[in-house]
Amino acid sequence: MRTTLMIIQLIASVILIGSILLQSGSSSGLSGSIGGAGNQLWKKQGRGYEGILNKVTTAGAILFIIAAILLVAIQ
After folding, report:
1. Residue 62: which domain range?
2. What are phi and psi of 47, to 5 degrees?
3. CA distances to 39, 52, 53, 68 from 23, in Å
């Protein structure tokens, strides 16, 4: 059980790293990250490449967190 969860966590981490690195930045610099945060919250997600990457990132993060919690629980 522990080995299976460790493999799942490894796969989730690789998926998470890859999906984050493939995403393009919407704005650069410190002012863009502070001022553009509200626009990103209310912006509709596209059905194209960016939308798929956002969904893959979310699924990878959820899978990673669940695997980490379960690994701690069985330890």
Report:
1. 1-19+48-75
2. -90, 0
3. 17, 10, 7, 24
Cβ–Cβ under 8 Å, residues 8 and 67: yes
- Alpha helix segments (H runs only) across 1-75: 2-22, 29-35, 37-42, 49-74
Does residue 73 lie in a domain region?
yes
Phi/psi zone of residue 25: left (φ > 0), alpha (ψ -120 to 50 degrees), beta?
beta
In a domain, 13, yes or no: yes
Note the residue count of the chain: 75
Question: Model-level pTM?
Answer: 0.71
SS3 state of residue 43: coil
Report, as ranges of residue numbers, the positions in the chain whose pLDDT lies below 70: 26-46
